[in-house]
Amino acid sequence: MDLVPALEEPLKQPLKSVLGPATAKVMAEHLGLHSVGDLLHHYPRRYEERGQLTHLADLPMDEHVTVVAMVADARLHTFASSKAPRGKGQRLEVTITDGSGRLQLVFFGHGVHKPHKELLPGTRAMFAGKVSVFNRRLQLAHPAYELLRGDSDETVETWAGALIPIYPATAKLESWKIGKALQTVLPTAQEAIDPLPEGLREGRGLVSLPEALLKIHRPHTKADIEDARSRLKWDEAFVLQVALARRRHADAQLPAVARRPKPDGLLTAFDDRLPFTLTEGQQNVSKEIFDDLATEHPMHRLLQGEVGSGKTMVALRAMLATVDAGGQAAMLAPTEVLAQQHHRSVVEMMGDLAEGGMLGGTEHSTKVVLLTGSMGAAARRQALLDLVTGEAGIVIGTHALIEDKVQFHDLGLVVVDEQHRFGVEQRDALRGKGKQPPHLLVMTATPIPRTVAMTVFGDLETSVLDQLPAGRSPIASHVVPAADKPHFLSRAWERVREEVESGHQAYVVCPRIGDEEDDPKKSGKKKSPEDEAEKRPPLAVLEVADQLAKGPLQGLRVEVLHGRMHPDDKDAVMRRFAAGDTDVLVATTVIEVGVNVPNATAMVIMDADRFGVSQLHQLRGRVGRGSAPGLCLLVTEMPEASAARQRLTAVASTLDGFELSRIDLEQRREGDVLGQAQSGARTSLRVLAVIEDEEVIAEAREEAAAVVAADPELENLPGLRTALAALLDEEREQYLEKG
Asked: What number of helices (H) and strands (E) belong to the chain?
């Protein structure tokens, strides 16, 4: 929302005098701040009160703190060490006090010279660093500090003033330096153009944007902060909802061909052969979809369904209805394994109805083709031909379907599986393949809380399938603490053996593949803090498979599956597993979505703490798909008190995906969830918290719909147009990255 030339001014060039090129460079590289506007929208994480700041008596351990205090004492010591054997090592110990307590600061080596000159007894300064303990005393080692010169109360007031903003900072740029830079550019906040329509702002008693920016960076009272945050939350929610409302509005203007199934066509023939009845949920959702398909503007529907709730069946019936009405249907899957799996299961479900144009095909049959990037040239040519002639009513494929070469005879319906892996632009590319825009059905097995659905999928209508089909078995989940109780892990492998002995199969899932390219030591990639803490890379498929085959699962048929295998090899492994020729499949998360082997009843997830909550829930959904009960074991070495263990306990305690998605959201920053969930713009949420601010989002959605209905081009709202352009630019960049 960097709205005007003054705010668009880059931090680097014209403002050399203000920030200095070095600071501007750190801001750009480490904080993603490039313009004055970006800096103004870099909000404080929290605020310290002067009283809180100066209480040395209750400093928290291992936290970064900022304190204002006076130097009581400073002593330089020399000592001998391996680096300075002749007693030339230097250590500066400074004691500071604030009346409530004392704290020791230490500086070593060359770092002692500057503080030795500056931190003289009686000097007041602001210190920032991480609190640690040495010799049972609290200390800050090598803290950054800012002298409060002049000793006039005013300096201390401006620094330790009523409320000191503490900014999200980096090791290279302390919070107060960001604060100083902000004070420099704050006057330009007056020029920020307000994106909110005046009526809306006044009606809701919100402060203006310039006032909100001033209050968030230089508050005098807590009420100032509240005012600013309420206003800035509204900005984020409203501009995002306007973008979605405009997309809905534009989609509603598009023409589409109504697709009504023939009374005694393919769909009826298919339904007549079903060996089971659809659940009530499947019937209701199907009705919503068929009603949408019968209208003359394109359906845009999101189908959320728990793992195993029968979404594929609902989607297949919608595709058959479209074929009945003379159109073609395309199903887009995120991976080749999944596209092949869907193709197999659709052909199996349809039987001879999928043999259109072939001997043995029935009167109402159609052809079902597969199209993926790795197909051989001849098979690919034939598939493309079947699509362009209309011979194939149903095509299932990966991104390969979006390519320019792919032409349809009459594309009527697009089904996108696992939507959060596709950007809106990819949906649009496929949509452009129809003579008129096709209807769109988007499916996800990741349950999405209502607010996220409003934010991320705000341009789609939503249907929810929350009943499991009859005959599905419950899944028991347990955490296996391998470090605390190694015998639990031995028991886990015994359980896998028992399942195989009773005629079933099992999955073992690992976070990593384990061939050389994947080795973090060799790739020079930075490790995550957890990796650093544990000093070992995540377990890898190839190593684990080898250890199991030679050890606890010796004698069983163990195979591996991972994303770097040749597609034909992957397919062969999956076929053998599906046919029951393999007992244990050791795999990466390539099996996360859509893999359907009803005879697989057990899953062991190694290093389960390395996976997200919804990912674990998805993986677990691969077992218990038949009549035998499922078992999911979450193996971890994390200690009992850790957040990671609590997360795993939560997953083990409930099979309700919506409950888990809430836990997931509360534990992670929305940015991550929303960033994965679709595409750009979501990460631009700085003060809006998707779970807590449900009300703001719902109200902003209503207001946005009203504004767009009255003025679709926003001709009378230049400020909002500008804010929207800034948001969508950011969004486009994100798409390009995701492409």
From this structure: 29, 21
Tell whether pTM > 0.85.
no
pLDDT bin (cut points 50, 70, 90) of residue 1 is very low
Burial class (CB in 10 A: 0-12, 13-18, 19+), 366: buried
Copy the structure tokens of residue 737. 């990255």
Convert the pLDDT of each residue in 690-714 to its tens digit: 667 778 888 898 899 999 999 988 8
d(CA 120, CA 260): 85
Length of the chain: 739
- What count of Cα atoms within 13 Å lies in the side-chain half-sphere of residue 169? 23
Distances (CA, A) of 434 to 258, 400, 406, 443, 605: 13, 16, 11, 20, 42
Distance (Å, whole) CA 464 – CA 327: 26
d(CA 200, CA 416): 37
* Separation between Cα atoms, residue 213 and residue 216, nearest integer Å: 5
Q: Closest Cα to residue 59, out of 141, 139, 148?
A: 139
Which residue, among 18, 1, 145, 11, has the nearest Cα to 69 in the 3D structure? 145
Cα distances (angstroms) measured from residue 678 to each of 67, 425, 441, 444, 650: 41, 11, 15, 12, 25
- Torsion, Cα 147 149 152 155, to 10 degrees, reads -60
Terminal-residue alpha carbon distance, the chain: 24
Between the alpha carbon of residue 512 and those of residues 216, 287, 588, the distances in Å are 44, 42, 6
Give the type of residue at 601.
T
- CA dist 248 and 240 (Å) reads 13
For residues 291 and 326, the answer to whether their CB atoms sit within 8 Å is no
Bridge partners (DSSP) of residue 139 are 104, 132
662-680 confidence digits (pLDDT tens):
777 666 544 444 443 333 3
